[in-house]
Amino acid sequence: xxxxxxxxxxxxxxxxxxxxxxxxxxxxxxxxxxxxxxxxxxxxxxxxxxxxxxxxxxxxxxxxxxxxxxxxxxxxxxxxxxxxxxxxxxxxxxxxxxxxxxxxxxxxxxxxxxxxxxxxxxxxxxxxxxxxxxxxxxxxxxxxxxxxxxxxxxxxxxxxxxxxxxxxxxxxxxxxxxxxxxxxxxxxxxxxxxxxxxxxxxxxxxxxxxxxxxxxxxxxxxxxxxxxxxxxx
Length: 233
Description:
Keywords: Signal. By secondary structure, this protein is α+β, with helices and mostly antiparallel strands. The protein has 4 helices and 8 strands; from the N terminus they run H-E-E-H-E-E-H-E-H-E-E-E.
């Protein structure tokens, strides 16, 4: 009986030792790998080929119906002028439409309503930058009286995004080489690349211009950020 117990104990110890040895080898071969993690940023600038402008009409009247009618008629005239310039309906979107009461300035218990103000604002996308000055002139000529700035952008930023990706990876690789050399190690293969997202930097400008020459388009920037993990050999 004593021998049986001794043999069982010996077998259990051997099994425990084998399991511990296998566990140690797994930790060393997998999770113990040394790495260098760096980030890179790439940006490519280009002249914009599209713009968006917010055009609005506001008006006042004694009653809400008349105020809305004034604004609606004026906006219809604005849209007609834009259509004459070739702006398609898909590139015009109503952004704000409201009617609100106006109260007497003198404080009173009843807050007397003295009239109504109506407002209609539309965002106009101009796909031909050369027409931007004409679009503004047409809107002003049709008695649009509110402008909320110009936003420049790109119609097809995909090719620029790819260029920015290449620059981002090259910058990350340059950083990794510097770190590896400073640490006295050899840089290994790329283990992973993770993109942090893309963005288009659009400069906002406000303009009430009577000619296209008065509008400065500048440049827009397309940027991409990446995180790259390298193995250390």
